């Protein structure tokens, strides 16, 4: 990770006072012994009513610094994983509460499960438990209050778009319809012409981590390839190879039929294809290496060549593959997106809008509006989430530590759920339980699962991910640079972009470069050279060891390198930083080569998600797929199994 030069840090504004609620950096404060860390004080015992939380640091979307998988949210799950939790936890204490349904995990899948359950059982009592201090799981809202702006400035801290909504599952489309989300109207909230109208385009930063000469290169539509390839800081042979790759690549296997070409592509990575099949100069592979990162979570050394073809990456035009349909070897998402339409931003706060709409409809008083038009500007009272007497309650900062059937799973009619409230273990009774958390956590929580199911759930691979939302004073330097979205070829953050130009009724996105705006950055810690599965595990370990101070330093450093020539001063222009850390981020897509994910064959999803007595499995992990509609489908299926 390297040392930070204190003088450089001061120049970047690292001494500027930015609120950092979560500054533990992987070191949990002891609560019930050194093995189990404290949970943030947003959790509370049954029956305790908190004061409304709307303003300032008490309002989760406005908290800055390290968010997401903070030390507080991970301490108990990691202690369970390591077998240390019960040594210090003490005996569980019953709360006396009983619910028809308990949902473990408050993300899109978990909240969808609760919402679907209430459609069938409208008078049911439901409890949602989550280890984080915010609703929505990895669908997060980041909210800022810059001086001089009327109202809040809102960005996304996680899941952002409806991916190819035309190809969503029937269950996903059903949820959108029940919430009144109209995709055509969402499209009208997106000002696709704003940035191009200001002369801003996409760009590639050939950074000093990969090339001797660092520089930004704008990718202006219609520009002849000879013009932009000739300016790249590549070796002369690399420029010639790149030009051939993007303009007129040959048929690399003229003697093979199409089916065999596709099968060959399915057995190699995109980097292998570039180096071994196309025979390009190594600089060309370096230039393309991070093409998949922001979308898939790993680079071309782990990204399948068949999916690179499906995504339209350079080098495949001469193979004669059918341009009207994807290969049967492509991953599920590539197939769906091929047949579907473009992604649609889901309101300024991203997919957390869906979660807020569902929670607001289930819990009285949480939201002042629950429609597509009102959710962005509604007021929210987090103190209403867990009120005694409500049929639906949402308990934050309450990691679940045990779920068991009451009696033999084949005959059980109820279950017992235990969670840690920050001080002790509490239990509630449940008529049914939906596990909508990380699949790898389930075997540690449901300890009497059949061995085959435990093994299948333990095999799930999740790709680590970092997303940062930065409030900047203005975006004049972006306009001077002529870019709104920049891919980096090898620096820590692989993507830097201005916030999506998405509005909503009574909410205007920034339109004047002199206004404050949010900047979105993505980092993908997966060590792709090890392959996606091993690389994800290694990247996750490295990520959890990386202190927040280093993450903020790299944000400021890269924005200074990118925008400094346009007058950007990170010490003065960056006004707030929020980093969402997800050690278990993307669910993989079975990208080829499959054996890099699961050496013994495709992931055994049917075994992993099998109902176990009064316990059902939801979440996108057990599908697995990186799409929101898959998480909704898993939730509907789990509810149907339990009510069947």
Q: Roughly what percent helix? A: 25-40%
Mean pLDDT: 88
How many strands in all? 21
Strand order of the largest sheet: 1-20-16-19-18-17-8-9
The total count of helices amounts to 24
Distance between the termini: 52 Å
Oligomer: single chain
What characterizes the major β-sheet?
A: 8 strands, mixed
Fold and architecture overview:
The chain is of the alpha/beta class and 644 residues long. Helix content is 31%, strand content 17%. It has 24 helices and 21 strands. An 8-stranded mixed sheet has the order 1-20-16-19-18-17-8-9. Strand 17 (483-488) and strand 18 (493-498) form a beta hairpin. Helix 4 runs parallel beside helix 24 (628-643) and helix 5 (170-179) packs across helix 24. The longest helix is centred in the C-terminal third of the chain and has 16 residues, at 548-563. The model is unreliable at 18-56 and 590-595 (pLDDT under 50).
Which key terms come to mind for this protein?
8-stranded mixed beta sheet, 5-stranded parallel beta sheet, alpha/beta, 24 helices, about 15% strand, about 650 residues
Give the gist of this structure.
The protein is of the alpha/beta class.
Topology:
Layout: H1 6-11, E1 65-68, H2 71-81, H3 85-89, E2 93-99, E3 101-104, H4 108-120, E4 126-129, E5 141-144, E6 153-156, E7 161-162, H5 170-179, H6 183-188, H7 194-197, E8 201-206, E9 215-219, H8 225-229, H9 236-247, H10 258-266, H11 270-277, H12 282-288, H13 293-296, H14 305-310, H15 332-339, E10 344-345, H16 352-362, E11 392-395, E12 400-405, E13 415-420, E14 425-430, E15 433-435, H17 442-445, H18 451-458, E16 463-472, H19 476-481, E17 483-488, E18 493-498, E19 517-523, H20 532-545, H21 548-563, H22 570-573, E20 574-586, H23 605-608, E21 615-617, H24 628-643
Parallel strand pairs: 1-20, 2-14, 3-4, 3-15, 4-11, 8-17, 15-21
Antiparallel strand pairs: 5-6, 7-10, 8-9, 12-13, 13-14, 16-19, 16-20, 17-18, 18-19
